[in-house]
């Protein structure tokens, strides 16, 4: 496996939604009824069932060239069974939001992602993981940064089509959910894209810190508008989308196909879905990562199937 030509760090966002102290803080700020909507503040958005343990273990096993792994939390420390806690650095929200403490506490991943580039001593090139994403095979630095350019696993999508999809989306309990594509469109609009945006995959995101630092220094109002919401809001943009579009304009982006590289599973689907998908994943030997979305919503049997697959792929391999 090749060594990285320059330092590359990893940043992982994580929360333990079952922590009583954290739940009390959320309750204090939660708007009435917001926890009934998963796109805003539903419990599934914060529940952890051990995914981060596999995430960190996969990075240590398959990307040993990573310099430092940072876990961003709110006064919490994960219990890592497969990796020593000394192998990571815990970064509290107060560090990210230094100078913007009036927006804390925050329970909003989009706000947190907007501020990750502010981690002290973070490398210029870093990779952002959600805690439900794991690496599934040995990876090279060039699969993330090629000649200093961010490798983005995504495809172009029509802004008109995305807005049409949102317009016809039905309401649930009087509330129209704000989806993933909507936050991507908002980011594209900010940088003046009128026709299309990058439909990002559920994969690690590669970022050049200086691109965000330069942009937000010149546009502090854009940053502050995105972090002022304690819970997700339809007015927010996706910070990774904003970065990729800015990087493209600077010639610092290389698009890569999602198919064959990224695996995705929604374990909450019932029946034989999980078993079939895991069997198919075993044949996808070229894919480098997998996202297990909302594993907490799966049945106990399916959770054990997924964890057994992860043990075989990452821990016991």
- The CATH architecture classification is Alpha-Beta Complex
Based on helices, strands and strand pairing, what is the structural class? alpha/beta
Walk across the major sheet and give the strand order: 3-2-1-4-9
End-to-end C-alpha gap: 17 Å
Number of folding domains? 1
Mean pLDDT: 93
Say how many strands there are.
Answer: 12
Strand content: 15-25%
- CATH topology value: Spore Coat Polysaccharide Biosynthesis Protein SpsA, Chain A
- Top CATH class: Alpha Beta
Order of helices and strands: EHHEEHHEEEEHHEEHHHEEHEH
Roughly what percent helix? 25-40%
Please state the CA-atom Rg, rounded to the nearest Å: 19 Å
| Count of separate DSSP helical elements | 11
Major sheet attributes: 5 strands, mixed
The gross shape turns out to be globular
